[in-house]
Design goal:
The structure holds 2 protein chains of 2 kinds.
Chain A: H1 2-28, H2 30-33, H3 36-61, H4 69-85, H5 90-114, H6 119-138, H7 165-183, H8 185-195, H9 197-202, H10 207-233, H11 244-254, H12 266-285, H13 290-316
Helix pairs in contact in A: 1-12, 1-13, 3-7, 3-8, 3-10, 3-11, 3-12, 4-5, 4-6, 4-10, 5-6, 5-10, 7-8, 8-10, 11-12, 11-13, 12-13
Chain B: E1 5-14, E2 17-27, E3 32-36, H1 43-50, E4 58-63, E5 66-67, H2 73-78, E6 81-84, H3 96-100, E7 107-108, E8 111-112, H4 114-127, H5 144-157, E9 162-166, H6 174-189, E10 193-197, H7 201-207, E11 210-215, E12 218-224, H8 230-238, E13 256-265, E14 269-277, E15 281-286, H9 292-300, E16 307-312, H10 321-326, E17 329-332, H11 336-340, H12 347-352, H13 362-376, H14 392-405, E18 410-414, H15 422-437, E19 441-445, H16 449-455, E20 458-463, E21 466-467, E22 471-472, H17 478-485
Parallel strand pairs in B: 3-10, 3-11, 6-9, 9-10, 15-19, 15-20, 17-18, 18-19
Antiparallel strand pairs in B: 1-2, 1-4, 4-5, 7-8, 11-12, 13-14, 13-16, 20-21, 20-22
The chains are: A mainly alpha, B alpha/beta.
């Protein structure tokens, strides 16, 4: 009973934090902060990080890490732009972009499992290599395809009461990932591998395959993020999303996942991503400089992890 | 001699759980004081109180007549109370001397005084009778027994007056255990007070001068060891008369379900030929490192087959854990914490992991797990509790239950009762016997000879990677097993 209460508390914790932060900004800037338009903007600005963080959540639950997602997103926007320029239909181009990103994940997964290298090192290498590949493919220039397609409208803010379709896409995939984690064997295997790889192996979990799948999925979600980012930029840019992987990891961690694996939730991750967007948005509304936002976000990451660690230490005793 | 350390009425609770309900303990220099009790009796908590990791809620501690109230491990250490835990605290990348003087490095100005470090490390090793260990070897390159020695040397180097040894022999070979005992006696004679925590009652009776039994967080008996028989100690530990600990009914062995022919797997397994029949318990005796665990792991598919053959009823080719579970072979790891269980996952998740449907209904699995917990007598809050929160014995029941839940017909059990209390042991012995009675085949590795002699139908002894012939249990005694395990009777076999 107590254990259950604690468990639900650790899931609700980030949500309480989000509500508190919203309440703070609402009390300080009611007119500008609390409006449908601002709400839609916040969600719009969370979508790219949010959708990529879904994949990262799975990677981190399985005890891994992927530092290359920022570069993957940049590469994805370039592939998408190139395909559109080559006259591919938008849907096919988007699928190709996501596929190309997923392939990068397969590569990371293979290197990690077959060569038994640390995920941190492999994906650090991939981060550099894929950024270079994106720049090379793009000829070091942003690419804006001539024809406007529906992809350009993915992140467009509409009338009052509507949300950009990219936001809906993120929410839809969030539900899907949450269901996969909870109700499928693959989901269980992710937790098992992350919690104790030796136990997973002993219990017949195909550990290597699970790892390759999860890096592939993580990269595919980064690819979806790339499609949204393309919509946001209305073009491909090889220098976009530099350092974004760290924000994505931060969202997952603020959401209560453990970097040592075996723990993490979709709701937590989305709340974590929202906390960061709300802080950015609220600070802007307060007229605070960018550097203040950065300090506040950094403090929140440390505070969230500290609270979580304290709670866990308590439950251990 | 006046006592050096005296504890009276020590109480400690965590939330609603009472860990210590009033412990009295008197430690005298020049004595080995055994502390025994079932898992969960409060030994670990008591030692953490002594080490300053936990502060007691009530009670008094005096060290040489003065009040002792450590606020942290550093306080305990400077007061001369040192612990050597079951899990060794060695920094594998530091040298021998670096480890011995770790945390108490002498300095000259801002620099390490390497000459003084070496001098004191040598002094401590000499005191232990092992000046031959080179000071500049990396600790990680030493064997377990020598790493343990480093910890004891570390205690001596900083002026230890009370040395607490927690299950020090659990991963030592018989020869190393004998050496450790000699060392303990030597320290005792030099005037160090030694607290010896162990599950092995034979060790307690041979080594200790005084014995204190804890049960449910309180001292229930404390007297010179000579006044106890092993049965007395066990009765104090469990608080009831233990009926026959081992169950062995007559089994009717059936057809052969598992057969190996000169199976080898590097580095420890050279040649193992055995036949395991339905409805029997076949015991594998031997020293630690003789290759018994390697044999089980190879059979299960966790270690690669180097040469030789495995034949399992309706199954040939290279085994893998996945395939083994599917074919009805279950494996219980000797190392519950690092391999056997995913400690921060729930009981249900641990129990059901080998066989899950593609789509999971967590509720159904929880309900199913609840049924198993009841059958196995696991004391837990519920199927969704994290398995790491349970006591060792209950954890082991869950790990064992995994084999039953997943319909294992051939059970490969590696040290199934290591580090668990007598009550849980009894449950497991009963289960093993009943399973063999139902026609399942059990391959049991154990380093505890009474257990092998009490539960197995046949026993084979492994020595340096080679498995001897299996013979009916009646043809073995502890003595002959030890002889075979140490390679003393190779011609007789």
């Amino acid at each position: 009973m107590l254990a259950k209460l604690r468990q639900s508390l650790s899931q609700v914790g980030p949500l309480i934090g989000l509500i508190a932060i919203c309440a703070l900004f609402a009390s300080l800037r009611w007119e500008t902060f609390v409006s449908w338009d601002n709400f839609a903007i916040i969600l719009q600005q969370t979508a790219v990080i949010g959708i990529a963080a879904l994949g990262m959540t799975m990677v981190i639950i399985a005890g891994g890490i992927d530092l290359s997602v920022g570069s993957i997103i940049a590469l994805g926007t370039i592939v998408l732009a190139l395909m559109l320029q080559a006259g591919w239909p938008p849907m096919a181009a988007a699928v190709a972009a996501v596929g190309a990103c997923a392939f990068c994940g397969v590569l990371s997964g293979l290197l990690i499992t077959k060569l038994r290298l640390l995920p941190f090192v492999v994906t650090l290498g991939m981060m550099g290599a894929l950024r270079g590949a994106a720049k090379g493919l793009a000829g070091q220039q942003p690419i804006y395809p001539d024809d406007e397609t529906w992809l350009n409208n993915l992140m467009q803010l509409g009338e009052k009461g509507t949300l950009p379709s990219g936001v809906w896409l993120t929410l839809g995939f969030a539900v899907l990932v949450a269901l996969v984690l909870k109700f499928t064997r693959f989901g269980r295997h992710l937790f098992a591998v992350g919690s104790n790889e030796l136990t997973a192996r002993l219990c017949g979990v195909p550990v290597e395959r699970v790892k390759i799948y999860v890096y592939t999925l993580g990269a595919a979600f980064a690819g979806l993020g790339a499609v949204l980012q393309f919509g946001y930029l209305t073009g491909g840019d090889p220098t976009t999303a530099v350092g974004l992987e760290l924000n994505i990891i931060a969202a997952v961690v603020i959401g209560g996942a453990s970097l040592s694996g075996g723990r993490g939730t979709v709701v937590g991750t989305l709340v974590g991503a929202l906390i960061m967007s709300v802080v950015a948005n609220g600070c802007t509304k307060l007229g605070l400089a960018n550097w203040v936002q950065e300090i506040v976000t950094g403090a929140i990451i440390v505070a969230a992890v500290t609270l979580d660690a304290l709670r866990h230490r308590k439950s251990k005793e | 001699m006046p006592p050096i350390l005296q504890l009276s009425g020590i109480k400690k609770h965590f939330g609603a759980t009472i860990a210590l309900a009033g412990v009295d303990l008197t430690i005298t220099p020049g004595e080995v004081h055994a502390l025994v009790g079932e898992n969960g009796a409060g030994k670990s908590t008591l030692m953490k109180v002594l080490a300053g990791i936990h502060q007691p809620d009530a009670g008094a501690m005096t060290l040489e007549g003065a009040t002792y109230g450590p606020n942290g491990p550093a306080d305990a250490r400077s007061a001369g109370i040192m612990m050597v835990n079951q899990e060794l605290a060695i920094a594998p990348h530091l040298t021998v001397s670096g480890n011995i003087m770790l945390g108490a490095e002498p300095t000259r100005g801002p620099l390490l005084d390497q000459a003084e470090i070496n001098r004191r490390a040598t002094e401590a090793l000499t005191e232990l009778g092992r000046p031959d260990i080179p000071l500049d070897t990396l600790a990680g390159d030493l064997g377990i027994a020598e790493q343990q020695l480093l910890e004891i040397a570390r205690a001596l180097a900083v002026g230890c007056r009370v040395l607490v040894l927690d299950e020090p022999t659990s991963s030592l070979t018989a020869a190393d255990t004998a050496k450790l005992f000699a060392l303990i006696r030597r320290l005792r004679d030099q005037g160090t007070a030694i607290v010896y925590i162990s599950h092995f009652l034979e060790e307690v009776t041979t080594l200790s001068n005084r014995c204190t039994v804890l049960r449910d967080g309180a001292t229930v008996a404390s007297a010179p060891t000579t006044e106890f028989t092993t049965d007395d100690i066990v009765n104090h530990m469990v608080g009831r008369q233990v009926d026959e600990l081992y169950h062995r009914t007559v089994h009717a062995p059936g057809e052969i379900v598992l057969e190996t022919d000169q199976l080898a797997s590097s580095p420890n397994l050279c040649s193992a030929s055995l036949q395991l029949r339905r409805g029997e318990v076949l015991g594998l005796a031997g020293l630690i490192g003789a290759g018994r665990s390697d044999l089980l792991q190879t059979l299960f598919g966790l270690a690669p087959v180097e040469s030789g053959e495995i034949k399992i009823a309706g199954y040939s080719g290279r085994p893998s854990p996945r395939r083994s579970w599917r074919e009805g072979i279950g494996f219980l790891s000797e190392d519950r914490k690092t391999e056997g269980l995913a400690l921060n996952l729930s009981l249900a998740e641990n129990l059901t992991l080998p066989r899950l449907p593609n789509l999971i209904n967590p509720r159904t699995l929880s309900i199913e797990t609840g049924g198993w917990l009841e059958k196995l007598g696991v004391r837990a809050a519920g199927p969704d509790q994290a398995v790491g929160e349970l006591s060792g014995g209950n954890q082991q029941k869950v790990a064992f239950g995994r084999l039953l839940r997943n319909d294992a017909d051939i059970l490969l059990l590696d040290e199934p009762t290591r580090g668990i209390d007598i009550g849980a042991k009894q449950t497991l012995y009963g289960l093993i016997n009943a399973l063999a009675g139902e026609g399942k085949a059990v391959l049991l590795v154990s380093s505890y000879l009474p257990e092998l002699l009490g539960t197995c139908d046949r026993i084979a002894v492994m020595c340096r990677g080679t498995l001897g012939p299996a013979r009916p249990v009646a043809e073995w005694t502890e003595h002959t097993i030890m002889l075979a395990a140490t390679g003393a009777t190779e011609d007789a076999a």
